[in-house]
Amino acid sequence: MAVFRSGLLVLTTPLTSLAPRLAPILSSAARLVNHTLYVHLQPGMSLGGPAQPQSSPVQATFEVLDFITHLYAGADVHRHLDVRILLTNIRTKSCLPPLPTSVQNLAHPPEVVLTDFQTLDGSQYNPAKQQLERYATSCYSCCPQLSSVLLYPDYGPAVSPAGSLGVHLPSTIRPTSPVARSAKQPVRGHQRGAVGGTFDRLHNAHKVLLSVACILAQEQLVVGVADKDLLKSKLLPELLQPYTERVEHLSEFLVDIKPSLTFDIIPLLDPYGPAGSDPSLEFLVVSEETYRGGMAVNRFRLENDLEELTLYQIQLLKDLNHKENEEDKVSSSSFRQQMLGNLLRPPYKRPELPPGFYVIGLTGISGSGKSSVAQRLKGLGAYIIDSDHLGHRAYAPGGPAYQPVVEAFGTDILHKDGIINRKVLGSRVFGNKKQLKILTDIMWPVIAKLAREEMDQAVAEGKRVCVIDAAMLLEAGWQNMVHEVWTVVIPETEAIRRIMERDGLSEAAAQSRLQSQMSGQQLVDQSHVVLSTMWEPHVTQRQVEKAWALLQKRISEAPSGP
């Protein structure tokens, strides 16, 4: 059967009966659609009669919210799919006017429409398919050559397995009072509200948060997107998507799911954001983790003579497949951890290098653990070129850089035995850009020449992978000698602690050393692979082994010859 890039799944089964069948329905849909899957809820609709079915409002109850959460949680096992539950026909009690008669445009017009609707014979050659196609095109902009598929009986009989989720779905919104509420209880609507977050690599837990906010809001939703200082405490901030990219994905998702709302997407630069100061806002959607922040916002509003916001606390989505050191919830932090060791951009082509010889440039800020990663790669079979050792050779009496350095900086940088005192030289150049440039203009070309000689030696020894370990790899322009740049990252606070411990420097001196280098973010922006040594050694080893295995696969699949 053909596979489509985008699809529309029309769910017609009543929600209580649909919940236990949802996993196989999503699996069936995931076999047919490989990029964007829109979901339209129309419980109780029949495709079997002679009359053309019409879209009708679905009242927003707590059961509907819980089902939306259940669907996004179930979709998390199909992470190649960008699932979007469309909310145009889902209305709160305070807002049930007729549905719009115009066709809603979608960012990715569906190429196929799918449904869980059950025909008597289970046949694909059925008038129900024509009804389905007409219904889909009356509601949404679809591709001209729209295909249709009846998923039943592919997803199996409507038998609820013992202990299934069909009895009681977990509550999406944590109750503010211990009084039990009915699943059929309508959700109250508001005119304007807010929601905030980092929204990095928009995932299904974000989509639950945003969907609830969109259902509650009738006119306007203010969306705060964390930026600048609020990102500093994030795990692996170097791998965060840029603000503009996060906003672009967020905006497309929101306009797709509820185009009738006005969205005001703004940078969130402090913990309160517009929720702390906008008098027109009525509610704030928070997660279990950010509920205390929501309470702080309300205290701040009261201090400034503003009414409190109604807080809606959304339960976190559990990540049942999380690994060691990853959070047990669906989170962007875990997604960034999973990127470690992966290829982030295509390798450089280096036809001037011998065929079958592959060069990695390994870099990282001072204290990042770069040299320990180099040793792990050596253990896996890589030939290591240590630029520090090459620098020692170049500085040594009779070395290619010795005389030029002494002439540039004077004989007072020498020990009594004539050897260059690197500590004295370092104190001259660190924090002095002019002096540092004089030194690097001498040293970098010399070290590059020595590195090329070492590469020739690696080729002679039959090595397939060579790693140039160099803190200043990118500053020196040595990326033109390698196929890939690998960067080791670490939080700056941890780097400073390590430098102080390793080199006996003061905190100010350690900070000065880091300021003389490119930042971790600048390095990552030019890197092909990112690793981190911020966890236990065995976690680092596992990262390096993953990166090495993927590298071997790339090398084996690369075309031979220049």
Structure, explained:
By secondary structure, the chain is an alpha/beta fold. The protein has three domains: 4-150, Rossmann fold (3-Layer(aba) Sandwich), CATH 3.40.50; 189-314, Rossmann fold (3-Layer(aba) Sandwich), CATH 3.40.50; 340-557, Rossmann fold, CATH 3.40.50. It contains 17 helices and 17 strands. It has helices at residues 15-18, 22-32, 62-75, 127-139, 204-216, 243-257, 291-303, 332-339, 370-379, 387-395, 402-409, 422-429, 433-460, 492-503, 507-515, 520-524, 537-557, and strands at 4-11, 33-41, 58-59, 82-86, 90-91, 112-115, 147-150, 190-197, 217-226, 262-268, 283-287, 310-314, 358-364, 383-386, 465-469, 484-489, 529-532. β11, α7 (291-303) and β12 form a beta-alpha-beta unit. The protein is elongated. Mean pLDDT is 91; it is low at 158-167.
Condensed summary:
It contains 17 helices and 17 strands.
**Span of the ends, CA to CA:** 39 Å
Could you give me the name of the CATH homologous superfamily of the largest domain? Answer: P-loop containing nucleotide triphosphate hydrolases
Which CATH architecture of the largest domain?
3-Layer(aba) Sandwich
Strand content: 15-25%
Query: For this structure, what is the CATH class of the largest domain?
Result: Alpha Beta
Helical content stands at 25-40%
Number of strands: 17
Which structural class matches the secondary elements?
alpha/beta
Question: What's the tally of helices?
Answer: 17
- Spans where pLDDT lies below 50 across 5 or more residues: 158-167
User: If you compute it from the alpha carbons, what radius of gyration comes out, rounded to the nearest whole angstrom?
Assistant: 30 Å
Q: CATH fold name of the largest domain, please?
A: Rossmann fold
Major sheet summary line: 5 strands, parallel
Shape label: elongated
Tell me the domain tally.
3
Sheet with the most strands: spatial strand order: 4-2-1-6-7
Mean pLDDT score = 91
